[in-house]
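Example (one chain per record):
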Amino acid sequence: MLSVLAHPDDAEFLCAGALIRLRREHGWKVHIASMTPGDCGSADRPPDEIAAVRRAEGARAAGLIGATYHCVEERDLRIFYAEGPL
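Predicted structure:
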């Protein structure tokens, strides 16, 4: 099972319960990927510093439910949804 969301904390808020059930009850391997490291997630820390903190939080949270964390490393505010060809 792969959860792909925008920021390091999105899976915890949006689908952690489902991911836990799939792992525990069905034995699925769970991977959580964030598109960004959350580099715009602070008003008082520079982007590289807060990104390191958010990546570590994502990895720790994933580990708590037996999942593996990945970051695609796109920059915050540069992820857009569009239907059809761009």
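Caption: The helical segments are 10-14, 16-26, 47-64.
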